[in-house]
Automatic annotation (TrEMBL):
Keywords: Oxidoreductase. It comes from Variovorax ginsengisoli. This is Cation diffusion facilitator CzcD-associated flavoprotein CzcO. The lineage of its organism: Bacteria, Pseudomonadati, Pseudomonadota, Betaproteobacteria, Burkholderiales. The keyword ATP-binding does not apply. It holds the Pfam family Pyr_redox_2. InterPro entries: Auxin_biosynth/cation_transpt, FAD/NAD-bd_sf, FAD/NAD-binding_dom. Residues 39-253 form the FAD/NAD(P)-binding domain.
Length: 475
């Protein structure tokens, strides 16, 4: 038995030793197709979706399924549009393990490469993180169907079930579930953006940083990156390493954001209890944090700065653009003058737009936002943050008009869109160990409450004796 096999045996023993209580407790439901309905359908099988499934399994909610539109190993950003070399968080952050020592990344890494290798490690390579996530998913027996995309969600008439239309292999089918968790990552409540000032540029020359892109195309070419967050620098560095002739990064701020607020908030009090504060404090904290945006670490900057052909333009933004077909190049008008480029990469984040998500489109009009529920002081107003969904304490959507779509209480958002209500949670490694238990508790609370009459009847009918009393015979 090698070290990894020994670790997996240890995982099995540890999970068995903390399995209490292991009694089944959910009342089965049958879908309109006559087949058993799921208790929970999880959309997204990356780090958040898989960890949610693991948390539910530990609570004996085992009639579940996680689906992911990507093929196996393509879940999340790690092997697709994440263009950094390593994770940005310290190696000792835990998350998908849910506080089980044998499931930590450290335990897995040491089993693979040895304790000395872990001690020498600075930050974990992103590809190894993707491998680790798949390992956790496998050893915790999370049920997953890859290559399966959610198309829409609708209530089942006359039932408390939800209907999820999914597509797999070009074929559509319905899945029925009592609850749905949307663990859909960065784009869970909207769409990746390209600034309107870049509208009209050829789609193969102007891309968002989340799109697949063949960086071999930039060899010997000029590239402009719009944005100055960590992903912007990652894309600039990738272009430079691919042999770009020059890379210009446009930063609107006079000074790039180098403070990482997510480092500050990584403590139990904030991660566990921000959502317990009133709206005034939640808004105040998250407005400050999200206003800073996410800073980039030193190695990310150094990847770019080591190249003499990297040019950082602070206090600069694109105000207009056009494509010169004669010269076969992009012409940008910026606040600091003109720039010419062969390619533009927009690393400008996501706009919250429920209607842009196919699975949310049918009920997007009735998802309550922070703007619907809270009016901040005049000096704290922020239209971008007001568009975020205002979630219930179990991560479920709230209704803008109560009673119009009551089934929304069974659709839980565990993605970047939950940030305003819960702080770092659905898309953040640092929050998983505190956010997952809160989410799972909310889901099991709802499942229990919905079955309370059956539980009451079960209790009253319970007559299993623990002992047999034998009458003493006379004499």
């Amino acid at each position: 038995m090698n070290a990894l096999e020994a670790l997996e045996a240890r995982v099995t023993r540890e999970l068995a030793s903390i399995a209490h209580p292991h009694q089944p407790w959910l009342t089965p439901r049958t879908g309109p197709d006559g087949q058993p309905a799921l208790d929970v359908l999880i959309v997204g099988a990356g780090q958040s979706g898989s960890a949610t499934a693991f948390g539910l399994l530990r609570s004996k909610v085992d009639n579940i399924l996680a689906i992911d539109a990507a093929p196996i190993a393509g879940e999340g950003p790690w092997n697709t549009y994440a263009r950094m070399h390593t994770l940005r968080n310290p190696k000792d952050y835990t998350g998908p393990d849910l506080d089980v020592p044998s499931l930590t990344c450290r335990a897995w890494y040491e089993a693979r490469f040895g304790e000395a290798a872990w001690d020498a490690l600075d930050m974990l390579p992103k590809g190894l993180w993707a491998e680790y996530l798949l390992w956790v998913r496998r050893v915790t027996n999370v049920p997953v169907q890859n290559d399966t995309r959610l198309l829409r969600i609708a209530p089942v008439e006359g039932s408390d079930l939800l209907a999820a239309e999914v597509e797999s292999g070009g074929q559509g089918r319905m899945l029925y579930a009592r609850k749905i968790v949307l663990a859909t990552g960065q784009e869970g409540v909207g769409r990746w953006t390209i600034p309107s000032t870049l509208a009209g540029l050829p789609a193969d020359r102007c891309v968002n940083s989340s799109q697949p892109f063949d960086f071999d195309r930039v060899r010997g070419k000029a590239v402009v990156v719009i944005g100055a967050g960590a992903s912007a620098f990652d894309n600039a560095a990738t272009a430079l390493e691919a042999g770009a002739a020059e890379v210009h990064l446009l930063c609107r701020r006079l000074e790039p954001q180098v403070v990482q607020p997510y480092r500050w908030l990584t403590f139990r009090g904030f991660l566990r209890h921000l959502s317990d504060l009133d709206d005034t404090w939640r808004w105040r904290f998250m407005r400050h944090i999200l206003g800073l945006r996410e800073g980039f670490p030193q190695p990310t900057y150094d990847r770019c700065a080591m190249h003499a052909n990297f040019h950082l333009h602070t206090g600069s933004s694109a105000v207009a653009s056009r494509f010169d077909r004669t010269e076969d190049r992009i012409e940008l008008d910026t606040t600091q003058g003109p720039l010419h480029a062969d390619f533009v990469i927009s690393a400008t984040g996501i706009d919250v737009d429920f209607g842009a998500r196919p699975e949310l489109h049918a009920f997007a009009h009735n998802i309550a936002t922070w703007g619907d529920r809270y009016v901040p002081p005049a000096d704290e107003q922020d239209a971008r943050l007001a568009a975020f969904p205002y979630l219930a304490d179990d991560y479920a959507f709230s209704e803008r008009t109560p009673g119009a779509t009551p089934w929304l209480r069974n659709v839980h958002l565990f993605a970047i869109g939950s940030t305003m209500s819960f702080g770092a949670s659905g898309s953040s490694i640092n929050a998983l160990t505190t956010a997952i238990p809160k989410l799972v508790s909310g889901i099991t609370r709802g499942l229990f409450r919905d079955d309370v009459e059956q539980h009451w009847a079960s209790l009253r009918a319970y007559d299993v004796p623990q002992a047999i009393i034998t009458p003493r015979q006379p004499g």
